């Protein structure tokens, strides 16, 4: 994936279905990237970006400096111990990610083996910025799961609170994230898009190859746009 990061290209270009891009998250304390997932574009339109992360995709994820998975570290020190990144693979079923420009969340769809739809997952995050090679965001810790019977619940409220105690989020930022979560809940209760859409019956093109993780996955774009 080469990239000239032209400003005009970043603002105007739309990706064709089947294009391979990167979906990345910045560190919450710093300017580097600690999550990178190569994905395939399903749809890229003015009001929606939809991408597919296939099973077996090689990704980058954060780990503690000694290699311990982040989720295994006690909550009290989870955000204070030194970290690094590690290449790994996404196992299990794939994930369909849906994002609307300017919205402070993306919606992920999960399936059980055999394509039995499991649930939607609302990932609260910074509105994504586009560049020639993909989209970048910052995760906001708090999430919401939504099930086919329209029930929903908050996730990771303990991590959301600990991130504030660790200084990764100010009170004002936390209030904005919580407000974004309530806005997402309003969409869920109204069964608005994408929950009322037919995405659970979507299937990937069998001809798509799994995107490769480039060596320069953490490069900094010269220009970005929303």
From TrEMBL:
The keyword Membrane does not apply. It comes from the Bacteria. Keywords: Hydrolase. This is DUF402 domain-containing protein. InterPro entries: DUF402 (IPR007295), FomD-like_sf (IPR035930), Ntdp-like (IPR050212). The lineage of its organism: Bacteria, Bacillati, Actinomycetota, Actinomycetes, Kitasatosporales. Residues 71-192 form the DUF402 domain.
